[in-house]
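Our platform keeps sequence and structure together, in a single record for each protein. Such a record has a labelled line for the sequence and another for the backbone structure tokens. The tokens are whole numbers drawn from a learned vocabulary of local backbone shapes. The remainder of this section carries one protein's record, kept here as part of the documentation:
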Amino acid sequence: MVREDAKTIARRFLDARRSAAGLDEYPGELPETLDEAYAIQDRAIAEWNKPILGWKVGRIHSPLSERYGADRLAGPIFSVVEAPDTLPEMPIFPRGFAAAEAEFLLRIGAAPPAGKSEFTLAETAALIDAVHIGIEIASSPLKPINDIGPAAIISDFGNNNGLVVGSPICDWRTSGFEDWEVTTWIGSAQVGCGEARSFPNGPIGAATFLFELLAKRGIEVKPGQWISSGAITGVHDLKAGQTVEARFDHSYRVRCRAVAGELG
């Protein structure tokens, strides 16, 4: 029954993404567990049939982390724009949910050893060959996706609709980037401030979670894929026409402009 439901729900999400339609409620029976939600995501990935360019990792906060037995979640990224010095246009679902998130982006340099399912932070870091600044575009046809919670977010590609890759961090292993102050601006207004150190084990902890989750799901990790490691300053509502700028340590910046559109 779960597999049949997963196929139906995944197809409804994909149809909404292809048409840029809005969904006012979850398109089916909400999964009771994260495993059921990932089954929907797996079905959607298979039917979307596009190369996975990266993975986003998001937080699950208490009390939902206790309910679901996990403090992070993940979803695939199919659209990556490398734009350290330009103002790319990034599509959002104007009738659904849309937000911007300032994030550190980790590039996978080597695939994890076959059959390995548990990783230390050091083992994870050894598989990363670069860290960049960036912006995740969190957008879904499902307008109340974040209000519904982790099961809904996982179901629809982790609520992701694209990634903007900014400049690389020089000497990232010794830079102390996890302690940098990060701010997010929508237009001329600062909407958030934070540090990556506030996450459990920081960005490398996010990558460790992802490697272990994908091993459990039997999904191959490929060199060159990106890991969007978590919203440092929060999740900031975004409308078509607005410009987002993320500033890192007062010296690195990355920008984009939201436009009405669709992933497909």
